[in-house]
Amino acid sequence: MSGDRTGSQEEAGTPLEIRRAVVTGGAGFVGSHLCDRLRDGGAAVVCVDNFLTGSPDNVAHLAGDPGFELLAVDVNEPFDVAGPVDAVFHLASPASPHDYARHPLATLKAGAHGTLHALELAGRKGARFLLTSTSEVYGDPKVHPQVESYWGNVNPIGPRSQYDEAKRFAEALTATHRAHLGFDTVIVRLFNTYGPRMRPLDGRAVPTFITQALAGLPITVAGDGSQTRSLCYVDDTVAGILAAARAGHPGPINIGNPAEMSILELAERVRDLCRSAAPTRFVPRPGDDPDLRRPDIGRAAAVLGWAPVVDLDKGLAATIDWFAAQQAAPAAEAAP
Ligand code: NAD
Ligand code: UDP
């Protein structure tokens, strides 16, 4: 069912200059690129991470930068940050299906306790709070493409529920703090994002296929590969996150690339770009794996003037170059 109301979707935001930001999950894939872009724009950054699925290596190039601080903190416990803060970006959460299956309770806690603690930090600082929610709140969608007014189709006790429901709860917590406690909040729903600094063995399709293709190992396509995803290069995703944070529209706002393709097509594209002869191996599909996913980005265009600009071949080529340079580890573990 599609809902008629999504709260304050038509509200305009108040533009914000971000001079100092906290990024939870800042040592992860998306978070580390966000730290980079914030520093590029002159904002000081406090990166908060417990390295559950991220690594200090992702921000090692910022060590010694006086505008960058890295704190080893578990946001599932109460935490504080010294000094003024204009914006809190809450990214801390396992994000790949492989990771949230390995860390189910930590994932639920990151959506619940972690989000509450990050909101409380924003409240104490008078800062804007941005939640990176996910297309997974739409579950296995019955509305295609997915528009923000769609309420989703999520199995609350299924194999992906620890992530999907944690993010749905995190959205509810954020919306409640806005509606009832006057917090300044933004919700963005990120769709599948790829790029350098993904972990080769995080189990997601892009790093798995690249690692396998580069090693000449069978490319593990789940099911018959007809399920679709819409892949957004990380630079575009981070530009969307920053635009949303600066604009202050409460959202939710879909951030993703509407170019949709089947997973089998993705495997073939990666194999071609890697100039690999790796065969395809069809493997069982994970439970509750969504059939279709494509964002409607009309709202992002209207309220942020944002749209992705990196086409798939360019983004994949940059990602493949990065993986090749990392001399990725064997891919066998990454099969679903
Ligand atoms: P990631 O696993 O690379 O990064 C998550 C980071 O959060 C890691 O550095 C991890 O160590 C940290 N973290 C986890 N639990 C923590 C805790 N309790 N305390 C402190 N740090 C903690 O994942 P990512 O792909 O960079 O995703 C970042 C965010 O974006 C997540 O919230 C995810 O749900 C959201 N998102 C990502 C995508 C995508 O395609 N990458 C799509 C939709 C939403
Ligand atoms: N997938 C696949 N082979 C893999 C890893 C993933 O075919 O080795 C499929 C997976 O079943 C899903 C799609 O690729 O249909 C995208 O999976 P990913 O984990 O990248 O993202 P998500 O499921 O969270 O959208």
Automatic annotation (TrEMBL):
Record has Transferase as a keyword: no
Source organism, top-level taxon: Bacteria
Keywords of this entry: Decarboxylase, Lyase, NAD
Family matches, as Gene3D superfamilies: NAD(P)-binding Rossmann-like Domain (3.40.50.720)
Lineage: Bacteria, Bacillati, Actinomycetota, Actinomycetes, Catenulisporales
NAD-dependent epimerase/dehydratase domain ranges (all copies): 22-256
Keyword Lyase appears in the UniProt entry: yes
Protein's recorded name: GDP-mannose 4,6-dehydratase
PANTHER family in alphabetical order: UDP-GLUCURONIC ACID DECARBOXYLASE 1, UDP-GLUCURONIC ACID DECARBOXYLASE-RELATED
Cofactor(s) essential for the protein: NAD(+)
UniProt xrefs under Pfam families: Epimerase
